Amino acid sequence: MKAYFISGLGCDRRAFQRIVLPSEYEIVHLDWLMPEDNESIEHYSARLAEPIGITEPFVLVGLSFGGMIAVEISKFKKPHKLFLISSIATRSSLPALYKVCGLLHLDKIVPAKWLRYPNIALYWVFGPLTQETKLLFKGILFETDPIFLKWALGVIARWKSTQLPEQLIQIHGRRDRIFNPF
Q: Is the preceding omega at residue 79 within 30 degrees of 0, hence cis?
């Protein structure tokens, strides 16, 4: 069975480098695409999901923002299981700060280049980080296109999904500062 992995914002497939699954699973990474002009999260998710076949059972694994994308994919390609890691399943779980940022369209105001360089605030949000993971985070963030980051921040802040997905399994740590349900 294929297990499709979608990393989080400011991350790539390296976020899953220590994941080991039983031998009956084949790990397939769905790497981020550049968004089209004014692309909706629904349309983007459909493009990202093109490699997913529907003739055989599969599982989806989404980390943080990748979990939100996985939720969108699960609406039209029905996974056997949907695993969300440090993510949310509906808009009602989106922190109020994100909703306010979406209403104010702050993602349109912040210069894209500001998003490429980690700082104390970003380290705190993504922490706790070890020295090793801090270096990995810094490298991935610098490699991530700032246009993609701005687009993603906008669709996160204005995400409208309300239906709880089927076959959902959520994995969440108490130290998560991005989408903390506790």
A: no
